[in-house]
Amino acid sequence: MRIKKHLFTGFLILLVFLMLAGVIGTIFLAKEAYSQDLEFHFKKRSTIFDRNGEVISYIYQENREYVPIDKIPPNLQKAIVAIEDRAFWQHKGVNYKSLMRAIIVDIKERKFVQGGSTITQQLVKNMFLTHDKTLIRKAKEAILAMMVEARYTKEEILEYYLNLIYLGPKIYGVGTASEYYFGKPVDKLNLAESALLAGIVNGPGYYSPFINLENAYKRRQIVLDAMVDENFISEEEAKKAAQEEIVLPKHSPRTAPSYFVSETLKELSALGYDLEKLQTKGYKVYTTLDLQAQQIAEKNIKSVPEGFVDNNGLTQPQAALVTLDVENGGILALVGGRGEDHFNRATMARRQPGSTLKPIIYLAALQKGHTAATLVPDAPLSFSDGWQPANYDNKYLGDIAMGYALERSRNMAAVRVLADVGVDKVISLANQLGIHSITREKDRNLALALGGTTEGVTPIEMAAAYATFARGGDYIKPYCVTEVKDDRGQTYYRVKIVPQKIIDEDQAFMITDMLRNVVEYGTGKAARIGRPAAGKTGIADNYTNAWFVGFTPEIASAVWIGNDRQSEPMHFGNTIIGSSMAASVFKGFAQEYLKSYPVKDFAMPENVQRVSIDVYTGKQSSSDQVLIRYYAFQKDNLPAKDKVGFINEVTDKLKQFWQRFFGNN
Q1: Predicted model pTM
Q2: What is the C-alpha separation between 226 and 62, in angstroms, rounded?
């Protein structure tokens, strides 16, 4: 009897101890829970758009498009509640019946088998807690769930849950899941699709229709039955939905313009947006890119022969293209190479520009007072230090008009013009046009006339410089980002374009007109597009770099083809790739991209007039006995007329006079 009494007393003491421990533990857990920040901070993906509002790419840690509850179909809400937490609208965070049932099963199995968690508990577990299967974590979960229920409405809790849940590979929330599984916004889902999506919650790896459509259909039936049990839908509605076949979207690999996206991220970083913010804050980033232009650019870059694989296993050559909007300077298309590397050759690769620098030299000559008709000797040169530059064809034309020298890309004429205007002047002008890698300290020599630079230039620098010609002399630094909005639609940033007047309008048109002849008659004939276009070819020593930089009234593009290692000429079989290949890439791109644009000519300033000249005398002529070209001149600085031209002009005027007064008889 005394033993039984002692046992009973011991049991009471143990029970009291356990109760006290439970109370103390509960108080401790409650205190810890109450210190918890109950704000729901979702990691929202940021979206990058092109200039027409088309999605270019997403930036995220968790691929989530947050959707407010009023944009989520009622049937999807009901389906989730029916299959995940039928008592959701009645309980206060914890469903004690389900919890006790789960505890009993866990005790029988001697391990955690059933969860018994409500939607609210799942929400706080995924937002605030770890996924450890311990009694302490479970107790915290219950306390936090009750606290959340006291603070938020049921609608808010359901909204948070529907945007938080994991639903597939890097897919979070029903908004992104709807895009992934059905190819449509979540507010467009019907009952059959909503039930199938609700079924995926329990196991995305098992119930995904992409992995096992049969499993997905079976799970959908369970969801529909649960909805009928809860009187959310009728049996007839469930039967009809169960018979509906799901048409899965084809997930072609996203062809996001990775080089442009990288450039956009750099620009955003310079504007103060770090990667963490971009991955989690749900920004809307609007850019200058035209996806159609980008696709055309990528297609034409692929047309460049890949060359051969050398002893180092490198495929040659590489290629890059960048196109700017002449009107505002924004980047319309950008291809930084062929492959998956992160080296953006359009913006980072400094390469020898060859003759693409010559227009800047001749522009400096125009600024000094020379014209396209100014004669310049195309004859051999040698210097005291042993340098003997030569023309690419080792031929010489003698005295020729400056415009013709540019058209034919005569090196000896360019060296003489550079010596006349001064290297410092040309370098200063290049810097003003955005080419900052050329400096007086490193490049102060006449080899600049042949494109000889210490570091080289980038395609985007060259495109921006030539865009200045097309724009009438205003330089605009290229850019990607036009606007940044937060997830509520508030504008954080909007670009301010500040053009810098670098070149007189007349001079900009005159150099443009000279470059138009390069395309029409000269080394750039491969770039003819059947509408007004101008540009210049360029080849670096030993065919290691091939260029074409061209423009129309609408766009300015730079195409570069070359070897990354810069050590061997570019081959395709037995053929060496030259600037005509780069010009043909420009042609293919410009023709296709501009085909929907009305044909437009370069705007001629009022003080400018185009006249024909004899390219070997520099005088006005219309004779068919000499080689003539039309060039633009300021009206008060027209070239002199040769005798034949003068006689022909007088004869024409007499004929006009005679026909006016006496007719054709």
Answers
A1: 0.85
A2: 30
